[in-house]
Write a structure and sequence with these properties.
The chain is α+β, with helices and mostly antiparallel strands and about 725 residues long. The chain has 25 helices and eight strands. The strands form two sheets. A five-stranded mixed β-sheet has the order 2-4-5-7-6, with helices on one face.
């Protein structure tokens, strides 16, 4: 659940409330007025109000026509404010984002020419809302920050609070808790001074959502409760387009989700049931509020929450009823996220009732939507990175141009002064001019260097964003093997009861068949449990924040230590394992300034992979094959190299370019997560080094870790 989605749902109505200024004229009376009014600014305002009223009726054609009338008359009268509002109206009526943003940029331009700070504020605010709803977060943040500055210039406490809340909403979407809290705290202070309790509740909803997204359910519960206390306070009439009941509905919905998750994590059954009861109470209250005004965003979420909760409580028929209601509404809205979650719950439901074929089909549909959403997200993130790059480039170029312009202005001014100076001062002046030109050139070069650096950072950010997306996907998929574990455990429980009955009846053959089914289910439970455990451990390694410090380390001793550790570890698991181990350590290497536990992890991973390679080849080769692993160090051209070589089967050329990608593995399913080499690659890069591989199919591979020498201690 995300407060950003709530805001998007009513984006137009928020903006409309700003434009209408509380007026409630009917379309008929406005049209009559437009026919009798003179061609003045009042008539422009009437056309804009008509455009707004038609927008509220979803009559985009008439809305655009009246906006065009306002633009035409506004241009004739040179009425910039009216033109700014008209362009804003046209922005609402267009079907494409590109055209919409073009109209809003025009609205901002005319608003600036009108010098009416209030109009400029609203134009920036609504543009920010549109950019945020389309996940153009950098542009949204820029627009909202401009709105903050304008609201503060206007000394309008309400508008200032609202703009800060919108900035916090963008940071919620970006997952930046620190900035989110800072901006929401400002908005909370201002809304509290205005006694705008509903908006206070809305801020607490955003903060609670952020902690929920980060699985800090206790903190989420704390802030959601504060939101509910405020929305129920006397006089909590919302000054935005949200009604107190709408805000309360989303608070109750999120509280239901928090209680459900806390119940699912509770080991004590009685405590879990109490939390489930509290979750149901909140879901039902949210459902009631959603049904009162047929809130198409709140209601299906409440139905889905009840369906999910009742599955956990084994209320099968109630669960199916609510899941069907949620599915129908999500389908009407074509909500991919809602349909994805519906199919995931359907899969669990069908497994519980024993319809495993249907469960499989539902899970396939869930995965289809999951992949589509992930692909959409990747496209949006790539576009966001491109937007960020273009934005930073424009800022860098603008900065360079401003500095060059300032330098030129100073040069011209000093040239004017030089006309009345003596020869000596003229000579000094031209010397000064030369220095200024050199400084200007240096600043431009620095700006260009900053631009190149920003580009490189964005490329790395895109790579890390891809890794984060993969990690999130795998984490999400952990639920699937856990579902199978739970489902097959339930089935085994029932089968054991049947087994006892058959034994009591003396039906030996039937009892044996049931026992075989129990054994097969237990093997599946064991398989899925081990798979989930392996993925989680690998992911935790990948995401762990390293607090280690660099220190002078004997790289030869480190290699020798991890070589012995790897060999004896494999021998402990498999007594039949044997391999010849060779070392070739360069004594001139000395000590290197590294984080020893991190580089040790890299070396251990490479050695383990080498032992695995020779072990696999030993199983396939004849008795003449001698498994050999060599670990060597060397100092070459001011760089330190650590080499791990094996005489295994080598790496196929078709996959060499993929081996450092997260989750890519050539090992059989269940024997590797594909995170080892990816983790090693990240660690070496963090040390300013590189990792390379040389391989030949059928003959073996050699991995080379290259560390740069500035931190070497002899």
């Amino acid at each position: 659940m995300n407060v950003g989605n709530h805001t998007v749902a009513v984006l137009f109505f928020i903006a409309a409330s700003f434009i209408s200024n509380g007026q409630n004229k009917t379309i008929d009376s406005l049209e009559r007025s437009s026919k009798t009014q003179k061609d003045d600014t009042n008539k422009v305002n009437t056309f804009n109000e008509l455009a707004l009223q038609f927008l509220r009726m979803n009559d985009y054609e008439n809305s655009e026509q009246n906006a065009n009338n306002a633009l035409s008359l506004g241009a004739k009268l040179n009425f910039k404010k009216g033109q700014a509002i008209a362009y804003r109206m046209k922005g609402y009526s267009t079907p494409t984002l590109e055209v919409t943003l073009h109209y809003f940029d025009s609205s901002i331009q005319f608003a600036k020419e009108s010098k009416d700070l209030s109009v400029i504020y609203y134009s920036y605010l609504v543009k920010g809302q549109i950019c945020r709803s389309n996940e153009k977060f950098n542009d949204a943040l820029h627009s909202f920050l401009e709105a903050v500055k304008l609201a503060e210039l206007l000394k309008n406490k309400n508008n200032t609070a609202y703009a800060y809340m919108e900035v916090g909403g963008v940071y919620l979407k970006l997952g930046n808790t620190k900035e989110l809290l800072r901006n929401y705290e400002i908005a909370l202070k201002l809304f509290s001074e205005l006694n705008a309790h509903a908006e206070v509740a809305l801020c607490y909803l955003g903060i609670g959502d952020d902690f929920y997204n980060k699985t800090d359910y206790d903190s989420a519960e704390y802030y959601l409760k504060k939101g509910l206390l405020n929305v129920d306070r006397p006089g909590a009439n919302a000054i935005t387009a949200f009604t107190p009941d709408q805000i309360k509905g989303f608070l109750l919905l999120d509280m239901g989700k928090v209680m459900e998750m806390k119940g699912a994590m509770e080991n004590n059954r009685d405590n879990a049931n109490k939390l489930y009861v509290e979750s149901e109470k909140n879901y039902l209250a949210a459902r009631l509020l959603g049904e009162e005004d047929r809130n198409v965003f709140l209601l299906p979420e409440a139905y889905l929450g009840l369906g999910s909760l009742y599955l956990k409580q084994k209320k099968i028929s109630d669960s199916k009823r609510f899941l069907d209601s949620a599915f129908q509404m999500f389908n009407e809205r074509q909500s991919k996220e809602g349909l994805k979650q519906s199919y995931l719950n359907y899969s669990t439901y069908d497994s519980i009732v024993g319809n495993f074929k249907k469960a499989y089909e539902d899970h396939k549909l869930y995965m289809q939507y999951f992949k589509e959403i992930k692909e959409d997200s990747n496209i949006r993130k790539a576009a966001q990175l491109e937007d960020q790059f273009e934005y930073d480039k424009r800022e860098a170029i603008a900065k360079a141009e401003r500095e060059k312009k300032d330098a030129d202005i100073r040069r011209v001014r000093n040239l004017q002064y030089s006309a009345i100076a003596i020869v000596l001062l003229v000579a000094i002046f031209f010397y000064w001019i030369s220095l200024q030109r050199q400084k200007a050139k240096t600043r431009i070069e620095e700006a260009y260097s900053d631009l190149k650096s920003t580009q490189q950072q964005l490329i790395q950010s895109e790579k890390m964003a891809s890794l984060g997306e993969l990690t999130a996907g795998i984490a999400h998929e952990i639920q699937n093997p856990l579902n199978f574990v739970n489902n097959f455990s339930e089935v085994n429980k029932e089968l054991i009861g049947e087994l006892v009955d058959e034994v009591d009846k003396g039906h030996g053959d039937e009892a044996k068949q049931i026992a075989a089914d129990i054994k097969e289910n237990s093997e599946k439970i064991n398989h899925h449990g081990k798979r989930a455990d392996a993925i989680v451990k690998g992911m935790l390694q990948h995401s762990r924040v390293n607090a280690g410090q660099k220190e002078p380390t004997d790289i030869n001793a480190l290699c020798d230590e991890y070589l012995r550790l790897a060999y004896h570890g494999l021998r402990a698991k498999d007594k039949s394992f044997n391999a010849e181990v060779k070392t070739d350590f360069d004594d001139s290497v000395g000590k290197i300034n590294i984080i020893p536990q991190d580089i040790g992890r890299v070396i251990l991973n490479l050695i383990n992979n080498a032992f695995y390679a020779v072990s696999e080849k030993k199983k396939q080769a004849d008795n003449g094959y001698e498994p050999t692993v060599t670990v060597a160090t060397a100092k070459e051209n001011g760089k330190i190299e650590v080499k791990v070589k094996d005489n295994g089967n080598g790496i196929p050329l078709s996959v060499v370019d993929k081996i450092f990608q997260p989750f890519f593995t050539t090992k059989p399913t269940g024997q590797g997560t594909g995170l080892g080499l990816s983790l090693a690659y990240d660690i070496v890069k963090a040390h300013g080094g590189e990792i390379k591989v040389e391989t030949k199919e059928g003959e073996g591979s050699e991995f080379i870790v290259v560390l740069h020498a500035p931190g070497v201690f002899i």
